[in-house]
Write a structure and sequence with these properties.
The chain has 13 helices and 21 strands. By secondary structure, the protein is α/β, with parallel strands linked by helices. The protein has 3 domains: about 220 residues, FAD/NAD(P)-binding domain; about 120 residues, FAD/NAD(P)-binding domain (3-Layer(bba) Sandwich), CATH 3.50.50; about 100 residues, FAD/NAD-linked reductase, C-terminal dimerisation domain (Enolase-like, domain 1, 2-Layer Sandwich). The chain binds adenosine-5'-diphosphate (ADP). The site of adenosine-5'-diphosphate has 26 residues, from strand 2, helix 2, strand 4 and helix 8.
Length: about 475
Amino acid sequence: MEHVDLLTIGAGGGGYPAAFRLAKAGKKAVMIDSKGVMSGNCLEQGCVPSKTVREAIEVYRLAKQREYFGLKGENIGFDYSKIVDFKDNVQKFRYAQHAKELEEASGNLKLIKGAASFVDEHTVKVVTADSEIIYNADNIIIASGAEPYILPIEGAEHCITSTDLYIINTKIRTLPKSIAILGAGYIGVETATFFSELGVDVTIIQRSKRILTAMDERFALLLQNSLDPKIKLELGTEIKKVEKVGADGSYNYNVSYMKDGVLKTINADLVLMGYGRKPVIPEGTDKLGINFDARGRIKINSAIQTNIPHIYASGDVNGLSMLFHSAERQSLVCANNIFAGNTPIDYMDFNAVPTTVFTFPKAAYAGILPAQAEKIGMNILECSYDFVVDAKAQIYNELNGEIREFFDAKTLKIVGAWIIGIDAELLIGELVTAIQNSLDVHMVASLPNQHPTSSEGVAKAARKLL
Ligand code: ADP
């Protein structure tokens, strides 16, 4: 039996930052990951590859508008298999970087390729390709992540998931002519806009009457109304089944669903399960007496501890905000609390985590938005800035969209914001800093944002309240 100060189950964003921090401070840390590499699902099949594909399409989209920019060029086109090669290469590049980081880390840190399961609350069994190791750990971080949620319908086995599309060395290297996307979560909607930009016939089939049901309704509807009208939105449906049709080698699929009391069927070359992700729970966790919520997620406090103080559940596995950057911060909260002997000194502020939907156009938000403000009884003041008057947006001819800010009407402190449109994923960074630091409307209004960049709108929006 080997003793360590910290064992992480998973070496993704929820696991490795804490392991590195403890090792740097002279503690013995081990990360167990069945992939045998760092960075978890984000790099293997999630955020990095999907955003890499998006950026290639962004370049293509701009190239198509070359005349607008005064440029010339013949035969602007794309080869999807080459876009996938590009994606694979970015993944490989980052894997090499992580391998180097691991190599350079202190000798107190190890990554073991294997499957971890709990024996008891301080003992973890790791099954590797050729052995079994038993670890005794003072502290454990469950950072086992999440996997695509599969809707339990007839024919679900015929559907692909985002993993099949974006995983390194994916087999899917040609574009379908048509795709049906089941569910309008952010993964489904992002992929819908990517494929639509490439000329694929896209249909989203969604149970609710709008997309992105986990997000603020006004925000989601604004984005919904900004999507390419070529994307067919079948809302308010109940999916019945997916059937494989066609001959050997040229299969396609029929998706049947109820809409307004009528059974409809559409045909597509591919069917994507575009729902969210569900936690992956290591074997043996249930025997420890750890509390789960009604949706099967490990319950934690804001110090990221489970009800067993030396066992943490960080990142996607707790389901509170399934984003790499959130997992990373949660992992560091765990490290700080482990240093403090599991008597919390650091807490996670989930409100201050930005979320970006990397659709065409992009949309980002953070903090308290109108639906949540109403729920908690907070009166808010709001202001906005339309990109139609923005110099950078005008240069790019991306005039749709807005920056919108929300202030607590009592304190005049900024509590939330969203951006739909140009540079959304970057602009939200400044607004998150404002939210985290509780800047008031005067402070936001006096930020000297650079001209001509889209960030000018951050201050200009706030000035409208003064
Ligand atoms: P997060 O961002 O929350 O850290 P990820 O999904 O990116 O989550 O990473 C979780 C990692 O945990 C994945 O690489 C997965 O292979 C690994 N993992 C999940 N369960 C186990 C397990 N029981 N043993 C070893 N590794 C695991």
